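Ticket #4471: structure export looks truncated?
Reporter: QA, pipeline team
Priority: medium

Steps to reproduce: submit the single chain below to the structure queue and open the exported record.
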Amino acid sequence: MSELLKAKNNQDIVSIAPGAGVRELIAMLAEHNIGALIVSGDGVALEGIVSERDVVRHLHHDGTVINNTVSAIMTTSVETCGPDDDVDDVMATMTERRFRHVPVCEDGRVVGIVSIGDLVKQKIGQLTFERDQLDGYIHQS
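Actual output as written to the record:
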């Protein structure tokens, strides 16, 4: 997982405070072209995660949620992974639990966030490398 974090173009962790408004959340998601934000009052400690999906689901049930705070719609029971976790294991968890973003934490601090797209890209790169190695081995003369 640590290799994946290093390879990501944007290594900044975008977070939002739990007291911020849902309108601010939507603006930040659009501004950064991302699907989820870490919820943290200090930008380091994980208090939750909030995604586009959270906004849509709450909007469906309550049209006034747009005037609420992030704490009203965020997920507080967050599945995390560590920098040394295996990409395949994290992908399996994300697929089974049906979520698309996982914070990466180390020593109680958020050190990154990965999306299912990040993991798929990493896996495709790994498989391409392995294929090229096998192809080179087979075609040695």
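Status: closed, not a bug. The export was complete when the record was re-opened. Leaving a note from the reviewer for reference: The mean pLDDT is 91.
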